[in-house]
Design goal:
Outer membrane efflux proteins (OEP); 10 helices; Efflux transporter, outer membrane factor (OMF) lipoprotein, NodT family; MdtP/NodT-like; palmitate
């Protein structure tokens, strides 16, 4: 009997709730529906014609392939297994990336929790009490003491007629997207910093070695000029000037060593290790190959690929949803409530039909006067949307400017390296000529030493530009978004076998990123 009563009543209430849910589903969601901003119509990053290739420097030309796809593992184009190992270790152990992934999981959980508002809220209530009833107020001397046991179930459902709940979930979804692109941004920045720091460290090491060679050459010049001064051939001023140049060179050496150490400490931090416990495996400039084929995304594709732009777009979406939330707060809210239960003075008889009770109804709350609070909250939401829209536009402008800067930097790096390659070739040729003339007795050793110093100084400038060219190449891949959208589903983080970004884009969203 008891089971039959609960079945009939539950079926009745669920039927009513289903009907109300259908009515609520047909309601309107107030506020603007978010529309994705159109990509910029510009087709180039720099004024004039499209860049096709750089000049040849060291026999290497970098070609720009317009509209080509960017590899997700772009750092492997430098062809350094040691660099690849560092990147893999950083992805596995970097605390900043781990923190961003945890924030993404948190936002995903909040979104899943937000979906619960679309379902009825069902609670089970139970109680047991002992009460004394005084009949004196009714003119009767008889009073009684009794037990009361209650067991009931309540169902409530918020009718989302004006879309407040739908806009709230929409805002949570946009927040999840923001965290997703924050993870991608962290991931891309991490890899970019690893590659950039490895190149910087290799450049400092090469400069240190060349500076030490230059110092030895300078010391030899000083020794020879001092001998000539003692013989009365040269004045005292000449060796003094050379010693001054030597001091300048030697003072630059500790600064280079400091920068090398700082680069090593930064690398240790990026891969999640303590600097004092990290043993760095040296990577020289010669271990790094220059990528010669550089894919260039069109500006219209860039805004669908760079994670910072997509994050700004998600923030714009969230601001749009917040307008709907603030607007819906100005309209009435409706809630359907239903309760069914049993009570009895005897616990064993609680399921007897004589003790059942039920209720069903609805209530609403309509704001009549709030002193302008709701109006200005909606106005503030609109202002926040306009702010997000301006920030989105600024993010796009900054992104396009960054790509333009890097493209021209690569062009100028190649031109500078071309001249410095010729300079170092001529300096080396002159040094060899002086060495041959010295062996033939045509010049003194001081002239040989001067030629060697000029060669090492030219080499020092060359190494700086060579490292800069490699760094600017890495910066181009980062500026173009790093190809994260091409990561295959099988690509996983070494940590706990988790998917790198935890919450993946759907196939439809992934295809949209590729084709837009």
């Amino acid at each position: 009997m008891c089971e039959h009563i609960f079945h009939v009543k539950a079926k009745y209430m669920l039927t009513r709730l289903w009907t109300v849910w259908l009515l609520a589903a047909t309601g309107c969601a107030v506020g603007p529906d978010f529309v994705r901003p159109q990509p910029p119509e510009t087709e180039r990053y720099v004024p004039g014609k499209q860049l096709q290739e750089t000049v040849s420097a060291d026999g290497q030309i970098q070609y720009f392939e317009q509209g080509a796809e960017i590899a997700a593992d772009w750092w492997q184009l430098f062809k350094s297994p040691k660099l690849d190992a560092l990147v893999k270790e950083a992805i596995a152990n970097n605390p900043t990336l781990e923190s961003a992934q945890a924030s993404l999981r948190q936002s995903q959980d909040n979104l899943q929790a937000g979906y619960g508002v679309f379902f009825p809220q069902i609670d089970l209530l139970g109680g047991a009490s002992r009460q004394r009833f005084s009949a004196a107020r009714f003119g009767s001397p008889v009073s009684s003491t009794f037990n009361l046991f209650t067991l009931s179930a309540s169902v409530s459902y918020a009718l989302d007629i004006f879309g407040a709940q739908r806009r709230t979930v929409e805002a949570l979804s946009a927040s999840r997207d923001m965290q997703h692109y924050s993870v991608v941004t962290t991931y891309l920045t991490l890899i970019g910093n690893i590659v950039n720091t490895v190149i910087a460290r290799a450049g400092y090491e090469a400069q240190i070695q060349t500076t030490q060679q230059l110092i030895e050459s300078q010391r030899e010049q000083i020794r020879l000029t001092e001998l000539q001064m003692q013989a009365g051939i040269l004045e005292y001023e000449k060796p003094v000037n050379l010693r001054l140049q030597l001091e300048v060179l030697e003072s630059s050496l500790p600064r280079l060593m400091q920068k090398r150490s700082q680069a090593e400490h930064l690398l240790a931090t990026l891969i999640g290790q303590f600097p004092g416990e990290h043993e760095f495996e040296k990577i020289d400039l010669a271990d790094l190959s220059l990528p010669t084929i550089l894919p260039i995304s069109l500006p219209s594709s860039l805004v669908r690929q760079r994670p910072d732009i997509l994050l700004a777009e998600a923030q714009l979406h969230q601001s749009s949803a917040n307008i709907g939330i603030a607007t819906a707060a100005m309209f009435p809210s409706f809630t359907l409530n239903a309760t069914y239960g049993q009570n009895n003075r005897n616990l064993l008889d609680i399921f007897l039909s004589s003790g059942n009770f039920w209720s069903i109804g609805t209530n609403f709350v309509a704001p009549l006067f709030r002193g302008g609070t709701l109006w200005f909250q909606r106005k503030a939401a609109i202002d926040a949307f306009q702010q997000s829209r301006a920030q989105y536009r600024q993010t796009i402008l900054n992104a396009l400017a960054q790509v333009a800067d890097v493209l021209l930097a690569l062009e100028y790096d190649a031109e500078a390296l071309q001249h410095q390659s010729q300079e170092i070739h001529l300096a080396q040729e002159r040094m060899h000529l002086m060495q041959a003339n010295y062996q033939a007795g045509l010049v003194n050793y001081q002239q040989v030493s001067i030629a060697e110093s000029q060669y090492f100084q030219s080499k020092l400038n060359y190494l700086q530009t060579l490292a800069l060219r490699l760094q600017d190449t890495a910066a181009l891949f980062v500026a173009l978004g790093g190809g994260w959208w091409n990561i295959e589903e099988k690509t996983r983080s070494p940590r706990d076998d988790e998917i790198l970004f935890d919450v993946k884009l759907s196939e439809e969203e992934t295809d949209k990123v590729k084709t837009d």
